[in-house]
Design brief:
It is built from 13 helices and 2 strands; from the N terminus they run H-E-E-H-H-H-H-H-H-H-H-H-H-H-H. The chain is mostly helical and about 325 residues long. A hairpin with a 5-residue loop joins strand 1 and strand 2. Helix 2 packs across helix 8, helix 5 packs across helix 12 and helix 9 runs antiparallel to helix 12. The protein is globular, with a radius of gyration of 24 Å.
């Protein structure tokens, strides 16, 4: 943590110096003084119309802002990579339930002697392979516990003094963690796909890959914002594990990890389609498998976009309320 704060302090000073230089230059430019400045972002400012300076300032500020979170992303990569063997073993152990799933559905389809709501044995196994892959891409790993620890142990105080959004800071760490986790866990997952290669049928429409990627990206952000909001409960209660496990139980059951949602009765599916859990895992898998098409696909993407915006707004709201409570009690 000390390393993080030190590097962020250095970055903040560099950003402040760049901003002050640009502001100083704009003042001279506005009053008609001839002055030239090459900023850290590579732009040269000359004497002229003051309005012409605005795009330079805006672009420079965007670059400065992005640089802060790129630095946080790099720190997250370094810290997460320390636990690469832990992630690798977790991925291996996570494949054990797949063996039980294979035997379970083998017995189900043998007993039925036919398909189940459009699934046969091979497509069902393919579905579970895809859920393993997508869950490794989108499910946060210990982010809620880290955020809660920042709040509970007072480490958040140092971050509050930095000119950055805590939400964007944690999002940068989440993305770096997902990148390392995916890289480390890809080999065992790839081996499982090779083993079950006879069950794999890839889509022929290139648009399917694009829509699946968009849905996976939105699913990852929805999961992160929900996790972030849950962690904000640490502003009010000491231990959030009970709340987290309750919500994760709903996600496991209603998100499609236990079984495909579209094998449920139609009335149940109609209700579950309006819940966020549907879009955290099942939606991108269903798009890739071609289970969502046409109007149903467009409706699913629209609802997923709506849940993404709601989850983002709720995360910001929880942060603002929690921070107000934190300051009120002398945090």
């Amino acid at each position: 943590m000390q390393m993080k704060c030190t590097r962020l302090e250095i970055l903040s000073k560099q950003n402040l110096h760049c901003f002050c230089s640009l502001l100083f230059c704009s003042c001279f430019h506005f009053f008609g003084c001839r002055l030239s400045l090459r900023s850290a972002s590579g732009f040269t400012v000359h004497r002229g119309n003051p309005i012409s300076l605005l795009p330079v300032l805006l672009i420079s500020l965007c670059v400065v802002n992005a640089a802060k979170y790129v630095s946080v992303f790099n720190i997250g990569l370094q810290n997460t990579f320390v636990y690469r063997w832990n992630y690798f073993l977790r991925a291996l152990l996570g494949l054990i339930p797949l063996a039980g799933t294979v035997f379970l559905w083998s017995a189900v389809f043998k007993e039925r002697g036919g398909g189940l709501h459009g699934y046969d044995y091979s497509s069902m196994i393919y579905y579970y392979l895809l859920t393993i892959l997508v869950s490794n891409l989108v499910v946060p790993a210990e982010d809620e516990w880290q955020i809660a620890a920042d709040i509970r142990e007072g480490q958040i105080n140092a971050l509050l003094t930095k000119p950055m959004s805590y939400l964007a800071y944690r999002l940068s760490i989440f993305l770096s963690g997902r990148l390392v986790y995916t890289f480390v866990t890809l080999p065992p997952i790839a081996l499982i796909f090779v083993y079950f290669r006879d069950y794999i049928v890839l889509p022929t429409d290139p648009l399917t890959y694009v829509l699946t990627a968009v849905s996976i990206l939105m699913a990852a952000f929805i999961q992160f914002f929900i996790t972030y909001s849950l962690a904000m409960m640490a502003f009010w209660i000491l231990e959030i594990s009970t709340i987290v496990f309750i919500v994760y139980s709903f996600e496991y059951f209603l998100g499609g990890q236990m079984f495909p949602i579209d094998i449920m009765p139609t009335a149940v599916q109609a209700v579950m389609k309006w819940l966020p859990f549907y879009y955290e895992l099942f939606c991108p898998v269903a798009i890739f498998l071609g289970r969502l098409k046409g109007a149903d696909l467009m409706q699913a993407l629209a609802i997923q976009t709506g849940w993404l915006l709601l989850a983002w707004m709720w995360a910001r709201f929880m942060w603002q309320r929690g921070l107000g409570h934190y300051q009120a009690v002398g945090g």
